[in-house]
Amino acid sequence: ANFALNKLQPKLQTEVSIDRIRIKFLNSVEIGGLYVEDQKQDTLLHFDRLAAHIRIGELLNNRLSLRSVRLENFTATVNRESPDAPFNFQFLIDAFAPADTVPKPPSENPMKISIKDIKLSNGRLRYDILSEPETPGELNVNHFFVTNFNLNADVPSLDMKRLKASISKLTLHEHKMGVNIERLKGTFRSKDKKYWTNRF
């Protein structure tokens, strides 16, 4: 954890803390107690535990295959000053952007990504465009605040041209509109620019 912090903080130039990192048999990673501030010293991301198991052999076939992901007790806060302003996480993208800015043609054989057995529990998500007015009790795409976010899902193909995703359980409480979802499930697919769902 100390090694990771020594690498991250000079790049991000903001407050970052990590309680622990565990790597087991090179195919299991667990990060505990991650906290990241944005450039205004507000919480950008915090979670108690993130654990992932990767199938190492799949990397040889240009596949990133996660057999399980667990994210517990997490908070994410995303905002921007105006509709045209950058998001408060843009500094993260800039910090890890490659030095070579010459555009490269898209790969003819992009990496295929699949994530199975996803479980997100006890999440708090907030999104705001700060310049836009709030409208309590009404649908407003510029502001939402979600608590009790829980998700069980599988994503056999994380490719927007060939998306395959199955949600077995989604629960949340949205405070701005006062919406409760006690159980949502369905299967979602895409092919090129067409998207559809069944068993929703």
Instruction: Count every beta strand, where a strand is a DSSP E run of 2 or more residues.
Output: 10
Q: Are there runs of 5+ residues with pLDDT below 50, and where?
A: none
Tell me, briefly, the overall form.
globular
Distance between the termini: 42 Å
Radius of gyration, rounded? 19 Å
Could you report the average pLDDT, rounded to the nearest whole number? 91
Number of helices: 2
Oligomer: single chain
Short description:
The chain has 200 residues and is mostly beta strands. It is 9% helix and 55% strand. A hairpin with a 4-residue loop joins strand 8 and strand 9.
Q: How does this structure look, described?
A:
The structure is a single chain. The protein has helices at 2-12, 90-96; strands at 16-17, 20-24, 28-37, 43-54, 63-80, 112-129, 143-157, 164-174, 179-191, 194-198. With 200 residues, the chain is mainly β. The termini are far apart. It is globular. Strands 1, 2, 3, 4, 5, 6, 7, 8, 9 and 10 form a ten-stranded mixed sheet that branches. β7 and β8 form a beta hairpin.
Strand and helix map with partners:
Elements: H1 2-12, E1 16-17, E2 20-24, E3 28-37, E4 43-54, E5 63-80, H2 90-96, E6 112-129, E7 143-157, E8 164-174, E9 179-191, E10 194-198
Question: How would you describe this structure in keywords?
Answer:
10 strands, mainly beta, 200 residues, ten-stranded mixed β-sheet, 55% strand
